[in-house]
Write a structure and sequence with these properties.
This protein is α+β, with helices and mostly antiparallel strands. The chain is built from 7 helices and 4 strands; from the N terminus they run ααβααβαββαα. Helix 4 runs parallel beside helix 6. The radius of gyration is 19 Å and the shape is globular.
């Protein structure tokens, strides 16, 4: 029998192993978070809206959003495809939080492709309400109707 060299076999095994981890992480709703400055710049560059999650390490509902909402595969997939996801630690980046008048946490903020604020929602948002909210903002429906009316529409 003839075997390929050990480095080649190890290399192939590592590629398969890390490929499986990457696919599994994405399938689990892994969100590609950006810093505030990078995210806003990317939003303009890619002509995408920016989703900003303001949080703090001490915030109970922020941790709940991390464990329930941001691990949901539908939320992760929708955010990664349709928005530039940004995380801002309101304690460490107090100037950014002040710019958006963040007072309580968590706060979910949407910024348009042009860098202009669309709106914000304070408090915990579960995965079952986050996906419709993301669709509402991404589709520009917020320009013509309330979120409540959007929810009553077909397919929502």
């Amino acid at each position: 029998m003839h075997f390929k060299s050990t480095p080649t076999i190890i290399g192939l095994a590592l590629v398969l192993f890390f490929g499986a981890i990457t696919s599994e992480a994405f399938a689990a709703g892994s969100i590609n978070w950006h810093s505030y400055q990078d995210g806003v710049a990317l939003g303009k560059q890619r002509n995408k809206k920016v989703f900003v999650n303001f949080f703090a390490d001490w915030c109970t509902y922020c941790k709940q959003m991390d464990s329930e909402t941001f691990t949901d595969s539908a939320v992760g997939a929708y955010l990664n495809k349709n928005f530039i996801p940004v995380r801002v630690d309101a304690d460490r980046e107090a100037q950014v939080a002040a710019k958006y008048h963040v007072q309580g946490l968590p706060v979910t903020t949407f910024i348009g492709e042009d860098g202009v604020l669309i709106g914000s929602q304070s408090g915990f948002i579960g995965p079952d309400q986050m996906v419709p909210l993301l669709r509402f903002i991404q589709s520009d429906s917020y320009k013509t109707m309330s979120f409540e009316k959007f929810l009553k529409g077909p397919g929502n």
